[in-house]
Design a protein that fits this description.
Blueprint: H1 3-17, H2 25-29, E1 52-67, E2 71-78, E3 82-88, H3 98-101, E4 108-114, E5 118-126, H4 136-151, H5 159-173, H6 178-192, E6 214-218, E7 222-225, E8 235-236, H7 237-244, H8 251-268, H9 275-282
């Protein structure tokens, strides 16, 4: 068995032990469902016929694991190739330049080669230009990374989501309200994952959602009028319409969207806990 095959086995074992999934079961189950329209076409990143050699691809480290004595396996988000796993050989050596470069929330230019589940990192250069995350903003950043690892399937490009991730990190670094910044990102992530449709249309009556009425959001079918027996979050039509256009300025929208997103994320993760979210809840920052 060659070294790359061993790396794949060890990476899978570590990922399973850490409860990190390529995508939640619901996302896999609905992969054939039509996805929400995107502003840009998806870029294919994988060629089974030959090895890829990628140069100067914008990316961020989402998570990393030790591999052997001197190396790391890194989970990265790239603009044009989506989420991929790379072996960073020698990254743990004392004098390796990669030690200070392969940090979370740092904009990088990455290069790699290979065609398997885990490819080989060839170059990693720090780009700069972003403020570091500190205190509660740092926890929010780890929360974003955990969401991306659990919801994005590998080798699927999401350039718009990548750009939103960069924008979200910048907003958090500049102390923008986390309750608004995180809601926008959660909404976009569920849309990109094919798990959230149009919030402006009621699925039962096929009519436009009315601002003055209350609704529940069926995770599989979309909004429907709320009923007295419903145990899931009730949200006003005004909140659904505001979420659809990204307007979270009103307090009622912030509160209702927070409860709604907790419900939707828990549903699609089948109740699996988001570790960073629980920390944020405990600190009353989310």
């Amino acid at each position: 068995m060659d070294e790359q095959a061993v790396a794949v086995q060890e990476y899978s074992a570590v990922a399973d032990a850490a409860a990190v999934q390529t995508a939640p079961p619901a996302a896999k189950k609905t992969a054939s469902r039509p996805r929400a329209p995107k502003a840009a076409p998806r870029v294919a990143s994988k060629s089974p016929a030959k090895d890829l050699r990628i140069l100067e691809q914008p990316g961020f480290v989402l998570h990393s694991w030790p591999y052997k004595e001197t190396s790391l396996i890194i989970d990265v988000l790239t603009r044009d190739h989506g989420r991929i796993a790379l072996v960073a050989k020698g990254a743990k050596r004392p004098h390796s330049q990669l030690r200070s470069v392969l940090q979370t929330f740092q904009p990088l230019q990455l290069g790699w080669t290979g065609k398997g589940e885990i490819r080989t990192l060839t170059t990693a250069d720090w780009v700069g230009g972003m403020l570091p995350l500190e205190k509660s903003a740092l926890l929010c950043g780890f929360y974003l990374n955990e969401l991306l690892v659990k919801f994005l399937m590998r080798d699927e490009a999401h350039p718009d989501l990548f750009d939103l991730y960069v924008s979200t990190l910048n907003q958090l670094a500049h102390d923008e309200p986390a309750t608004i910044v995180l809601r926008r990102f959660e909404f976009a992530l569920l849309r990109e994952s094919g798990l959230l449709g149009d919030l402006t249309r009621c699925t039962q009556q096929r009519e436009r959602v009315q601002a003055e009425q209350f609704y529940v959001l069926d995770p599989e079918r979309g909004p429907r009028p709320a009923m007295p027996a419903d145990s899931v979050p009730r949200v006003s039509g005004k909140t659904l319409l505001a979420m659809q256009c990204g307007d979270y300025t009103e307090q009622s929208t912030q509160l209702q969207s927070k409860l709604l997103m907790r419900f939707l994320l828990a549903h699609h993760l089948h109740g699996a806990a988001l570790n960073t979210r629980q920390i944020l809840i405990d600190l009353q920052n989310l």
